[in-house]
Amino acid sequence: MATYKDFELAVALLSGGTNTVIYDDVGLPSIMVRFDKKLISELIDGGSNGPHPAFLVEGVEVPAFYCSKYQNIVYKGRAYSLPLQDPAAGYIDASDKGSAPSNGVSFDNSKIWCEAKGSGWHLLTNAEWAAIALWCRKNGFMPRGNNNYGKDISAGWEHGIETYDRGDPYKTYRVATGSGPVGWSHDGTPAGIWDLNGNVWEWVGGYRTVDGEIQIIPDNIAAKQIEQTSASSRWKAILPDGSLVEPGTPGTLKWDFLTKPSGSSGFQFQLVTTITNRPDDDLPYGSNSFAALTAASGVTVPEILKSLALFPADSGDHGGDYIFMRNRGERLGYRGGNWSDGADAGVFYLNGHTSRSYVDDILGFRSAYIPGI
Predict the structure, then answer these.
(1) In terms of CB atoms within 10 Å, which end of the chain has fewer, N or C?
(2) How far apart are CA 363 and CA 124, in angstroms?
(3) How confident is the model at residue 263 (pLDDT cuts 50, 70, 90)?
(4) Domains in the chain: how many in total?
(5) Does residue 257 lie in a domain region?
(6) For the segment 16-40, what is each residue's pLDDT rounded down to a tens digit?
């Protein structure tokens, strides 16, 4: 009879040793991909020689983080990375919600399910996602995925196994985790991280905006199971020189529309230090090609925004990916896109226009792990 040891050996052999099985505090497995420490200069041309923020936890360098190979499911109140599953999105079975206050896949519940696994486990942070995205671009491989109803928009012959039926016999929606071809992994090999482009959006920790002001939890401290509530003192705003300051400090970096919008359409926006075009209600949202983001005249873009994949590091192609925002109220972030986003989806795709309580069948998450923090 096969054992967990056989399972571990198979995972290691099939991945060339880069994938590993990590067990949580109740002894159940997740398949994880080790992502080793990178310098900013290794990910961004002309970048500094310090470690990328994903590898700093309260000022201490970590050698690697482990990313879920697959978008997560939830089982008995804990998140798991396993192949050929329907990823958790929308509402899960109420019997699996554990200590979460509801069974909706909101930001806060996703964080609870990841952290319930034990020490070192956390919701994948924006810093960690950014490190992977920048690595993909630097290495010349932008992963494809389920962004066109079960297929990839640029490669219609690539498809996954349907797991979620909305009643339309002519369309495929969610597909099973890892069921697409190797072009759907972050490095184009069986050892990679699957479904970072499409299928379901993924909540990320450590990034938000409040009334348009960009706020982060510095470095990768968000991996430490710290409070990320709306009132948390951990959130910091960013000055154009890259300094981190208290939210609300004058002159911090913000998203603002180019002109004052109205209605429910998407409008272009830019990086500013003073907001002048906030809409009168929550209907308008910002919609911009990530590669075409600009800063207002006289506004410097610090390296920290580029290293966190919140602003393009150069003027080159970023896969056609998009970025969305609202500059009213608190807005959390999720990345990657969903099954219907087409060419907009990808590793640089960032949606920052909904609240932390938002729940939708197009929105899921994945856990990550750093031992010893």
Answers:
(1) N
(2) 14
(3) confident
(4) 1
(5) yes
(6) 668 999 999 999 999 999 999 999 9
Q: Are strands 213-216 and 201-210 parallel, antiparallel or unpaired?
A: antiparallel
What is the Cα–Cα distance from 280 to 243, expressed in whole angstroms? 31
- Judge whether 323 and 109 are in contact, CB under 8 Å: no
Q: CA-based angle 127:273:318, to the nearest 5?
A: 45
- Residues 6 or more apart whose Cβ sits within 8 Å of residue 181: 158
The 10 Å Cβ neighbour count of residue 161 is: 15
Residue whose entry in the numeric block shows the structure tokens 């985790």: 177
CA distance 207 to 272: 18
Task: Give 96: exposed, middle or buried? Use CB within 10 Å, 0-12, 13-18, 19+.
Answer: middle
Task: Determine the pLDDT at residue 349.
Answer: 98
How crowded is residue 357: how many other Cβ atoms within 10 Å of its Cβ? Answer: 12
Residue 147 lies in a domain: no
- CA–chain centroid gap for 303, Å, is 19
Looking at residue 201, what is its pLDDT? 98
pLDDT tens-digit readout, 270-286: 999 999 999 999 999 99
Which residue is it, tokens 């990550």?
368
Nearest to 150 by CA among 182, 107, 184: 184
Using an 8 Å Cβ cutoff, are 122 and 371 in contact?
A: no
**Full domain range(s) for residue 208:** 204-354
Give one DSSP letter per residue of 290-302, joined into a string: GGG--B-TT----
Taking 3-state DSSP, the helix, strand and coil percentages for the chain, each rounded to the nearest 5, stand at 15, 30, 55
Tell me, yes or no, whether 53 lies in a domain. Answer: no
CB 47 within 8 A of CB 40: yes
- The structure tokens listed for 326 are 């609202």
Alpha-carbon distance 77 to 86, whole Å? Answer: 16
Helical (H) or strand (E) element with 13: helix 4-15
Q: How many CB atoms lie within 10 A of CB 19?
A: 22
Instruction: Using DSSP, state whether 150 is helix, strand or coil.
Output: coil
Residue 109 inside a domain? The answer is no
User: What pTM value is reported for the model?
Assistant: 0.96
